[in-house]
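Researcher: Before we compare anything, I want clean individual predictions. No alignment, no superposition, just each chain on its own. First chain goes here; please echo the sequence and then give the structure tokens.
Model: Echoing the first chain and its structure:
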Amino acid sequence: IIFRVLLNTPGFPAVKGDVKVCKFSGRFFFYDYQIIGEETVLAGTKKIRTLHLKKLHDAGVEGTEIWLDEDHYYWPVEVLMTDRNGDTMRQMISKIEEKR
């Protein structure tokens, strides 16, 4: 929800460079993300236009990359987390159902 609130602003994709993201989990945490650019992600057989963000961090520190759906309020459709040892875990949406 945090990404949706921060990115659901007219003209946001035109912003280049870095963006600060806030997460609340008992207290506020602030993270710096780099806007990598627009990319296409496959969810099953559907192509999704995304905005790719990468958490700025030092070597040997946990990192996160997030792909946000540009056509569905910037909801996360893919998340790649890297731990301190370089091991990764990927979460990816498998389908999107639109009910009207």
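Researcher: Okay. Second chain, same rules.
Model: Second chain and its structure:
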Amino acid sequence: MKLSGHGARLIIASVVATNVATAFANDAHEQLRKLPAATRTHALATTATSAGFACAGASSEYKGMDKDRRAYWRVDCSNGQSYMVSIDDDKAGSTKVVSCALMRKVGADTCFVKWKK
């Protein structure tokens, strides 16, 4: 399983603002959410690529946030692959990337199901 390393941690945060504006929200996620769709998808695809996955972004979708305020986004790539990008609620906006195909194989396919709000 490939996860993003130190080199990809700040990809999203470098595309968006790096200042933490509030202690009650995932700032990197909020800044990403406010970007135009094409820019947001490009940032997520760049994060996946930096984690070792080939991805030219075609679309992206916000999936939800967990109890630790970690945000989850799916990025769909032009090569037919999809990845789940998690954005931690920390000052750096640390990210992890997991292949949706791998998630499906291990029975944790949350990439393509509707998340409860």
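Researcher: What stands out in the second chain?
Model: The helical segments are 11-15, 27-34, 37-50, 100-105. Additionally, Residues 58 and 78 are 5 Å apart (CA to CA).
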